[in-house]
Amino acid sequence: MKMDRLDKYRGVIPAFYACYDDAGEISPARTRALARYLIDKGVKGLYVCGSSGECIYQSVQERKITLENVMAEAKGKVTVIAHVACNNTRDSVELARHAEAQGVDAIACIPPIYFHLPEYAIAEYWNTISNAAPHTDFVIYNIPQLAGVALTMPLFREMRKNSRVVAVKNSSMPVQDIQMFKAEGGRDFIVFNGPDEQFVGGRAMGADGGIGGTYAVMPELFLKADALVRAGELEKAREIQYAVDEIIYTMCACRANLYAVMKEILKRKGVNVGSVRAPLTPLSESDLPIVEKSMALIDAAITKYSGTY
């Protein structure tokens, strides 16, 4: 596998937020506006309809609408990875076919949740979905703390028999997992860091880039940290990571769901993508001082670390 074919996955790829209108329905206009906003910031790509996109609370048709409108803005400009997993194979296959027809660079899948399936059944689920998009790269999404099942090395080796499997989005907390997947996958295999709080640690351990849920609210900081890692300036990158972590911890102090908080910050930056879908908790009046503090921290960090730092 040629290195240059996979360069499109090396970098900062924000996890795209669900964009709703004031009635709580998917908004094509707001979806396109968020895509344009992130593209203009200089990100490497967009990860669409994943956890940050509230995929488990949306219908197949809603997820199609989201992807179609992202692609209308992003196709040919940035890398697009579409998360297509549903909790049944049939719907996942439908979304995989749709994503390939839209021209995405890759599809991604978590394992099935709720029922604890044996590894051979998980492999069959992933391979069936991949077979539905035979001309599209496949990304395994490892997020054991939410999916309830981890990507083990035997399962990883089984999936590597599928030539379309080019990457793992690793959202397990130990950075050691990144090293294991890189060592097993080889130089031409992509591993994305998932937990935003350890972006620099993951990159230092060998992650080729990152896909994260807080990137969209402060892309400048992750882009700068990524550039510093590439330049070997790890101490400076670590300083930005500490600033990012303070911001994340502050946002998480709200009563509201984290995505509701970040959507409010985006709204105040001029990008209105609505709120969150129940049962996620929307913003409350008591959260507003924390939102303002979070915005101040973001703005201060961007000012401090912009330019030639």
Could you explain how this protein is built, in words?
This protein is an alpha/beta fold and 309 residues long. The protein has a single domain (3-229), classed as TIM Barrel (Alpha-Beta Barrel). It has 13 helices and 8 strands. The chain has helices at 3-6, 28-41, 60-74, 89-102, 119-131, 144-147, 153-159, 176-185, 199-205, 219-230, 234-251, 258-268, 288-305, and strands at residues 12-14, 45-48, 79-83, 106-109, 137-142, 165-170, 190-193, 209-212. The chain has an 8-stranded parallel beta sheet with strand order 1-8-7-6-5-4-3-2. Helix 9 (199-205) links the parallel strand 7 and strand 8. The longest helix is centred in the C-terminal third of the chain and has 18 residues, at 234-251. It is globular, with a radius of gyration of 18 Å.
List the helices and strands and how they pair.
Layout: H1 3-6, E1 12-14, H2 28-41, E2 45-48, H3 60-74, E3 79-83, H4 89-102, E4 106-109, H5 119-131, E5 137-142, H6 144-147, H7 153-159, E6 165-170, H8 176-185, E7 190-193, H9 199-205, E8 209-212, H10 219-230, H11 234-251, H12 258-268, H13 288-305
In short:
The protein has 309 residues and is of the alpha/beta class. The protein is 48% helix and 12% strand. It has one domain (3-229): TIM Barrel (Alpha-Beta Barrel).
The structural class is: alpha/beta
The total count of strands amounts to 8
The major β-sheet equals:
8 strands, parallel
Q: What number of domains?
A: 1
* Proper CATH architecture: Alpha-Beta Barrel
- In CATH, the homologous superfamily goes by the name Aldolase class I
Unreliable residue runs:
none
Q: What is the CATH C level class, in words?
A: Alpha Beta
User: Helical stretch count?
Assistant: 13
Distance between the termini: 36 Å
Cα-atom radius of gyration: 18 Å
CATH topology: TIM Barrel
Please state how the strands of the largest beta sheet are arranged side by side.
1-8-7-6-5-4-3-2
**Helix coverage percent of residues?**
40-55%
Approximately how much beta-strand content do the residues carry?
A: 5-15%
